[in-house]
Design a protein that fits this description.
This protein is an alpha+beta fold and 254 residues long. It is 26% helix and 28% strand. The protein has a single domain, classed as Ribosomal Protein S5, domain 2, CATH 3.30.230.70. The structure holds uridine-5'-diphosphate (UDP).
Length: 254
């Protein structure tokens, strides 16, 4: 039997959920929802629901892991068994370990870790419901949770993917687009400096398509950065008032 590939973009250029090529799914960020963590954030992004808790910096008990001149950043990305349609096997799989590692590296490039030698900063990213783009949503929320914990950073990290479906470059793939699309390009940047801290690619993009996809993701990160700042402002400043431009995003004090 010949499989007919489902069309993801209609004749008017609209995707299945009505978005045009350059639109994000709806995003809501809440800073500091957890009482027992040093810092926390909750994000809803399309069908994704993700809670992040941060602990630390705390002294590392395992001496062989200690760095004499800085803190180490340990991210644990976990998907709950009930987060996807087919019950996910409990425990950390290969994919979760890989995502934990790349997100640790992304955040290590942002946190001003030399203020906390021999310590660990733990970031727990718990995916409660997954609908594609969880690493980007998790990284975006993790950075808000770190700011909520008062951990100094060179800026917030905003993250978003772009990709290719039906031969067209689009922003922020949903689950079906991710499953049957041609390429996915997760990007994480520090919007205030433009530094790239995460860049992965699944599938194939030409040079031109790559540039277009990267540009779409980078522009979206600017919008996501605003949502991150608003979430922190709601907790730490009067509603609607944003942190001052020259105030490092991570050094928000209560
Ligand atoms: N997914 C799933 N089962 C799994 C792993 C992933 O159903 O065991 C789904 C989930 O919705 C996830 C999506 O596949 O968001 C895309 O996964 P990918 O590895 O591309 O990471 P993500 O896009 O979430 O960063």
């Amino acid at each position: 039997m010949k499989l007919v590939k489902e069309k993801l973009i209609d004749g008017d250029g609209k995707r299945r959920d009505g978005r045009t090529f350059d639109m994000l799914r709806p995003i809501k960020i809440d800073a500091g929802p957890l009482k027992n963590a040093d810092g926390s954030a909750y994000i809803e992004w399309g069908n994704n629901k993700i809670m992040v808790g941060v602990y630390g910096p705390r002294e590392l008990q395992q001496k062989h892991l200690q760095e004499p001149d800085r803190a180490i950043v340990q991210v644990q990305y976990t998907m709950a068994s009930f987060s996807v349609e087919d019950r996910k096997k409990p425990g950390q799989g290969r994919r979760e370990n890989e995502i934990s590692k790349i997100l640790s590296e992304a955040l290590e490039g942002v946190i001003i870790s030399d203020q906390y030698p021999r310590t660990a900063i733990n970031v727990f990213i718990e995916v409660l419901e997954a609908g594609a783009g969880t690493r980007c949503a998790g990284l975006t929320a993790a950075s808000v949770a770190l700011a909520d914990a008062g951990i100094p950073m060179r800026g917030l990290v905003a993250s978003c993917a772009a990709g290719k479906i039906d031969g067209q470059v689009v922003l922020d793939l949903d689950k079906l687009e991710d499953n049957i699309g041609d390429a996915d390009l997760p990007v994480g940047i520090i919007p205030t400096t433009g530094e790239i801290v995460l860049l992965q690619m699944d599938g194939h993009l030409s040079d031109l398509e790559f540039e277009k996809a990267f540009g779409l993701a980078r522009d979206a990160c600017m919008k996501i950065h605003e949502l991150q700042r608003e979430a922190l402002s709601r907790k730490y400043f009067n509603e609607g008032e944003s942190p001052k431009e020259d105030e490092p995003d991570g050094e928000v004090t209560s």
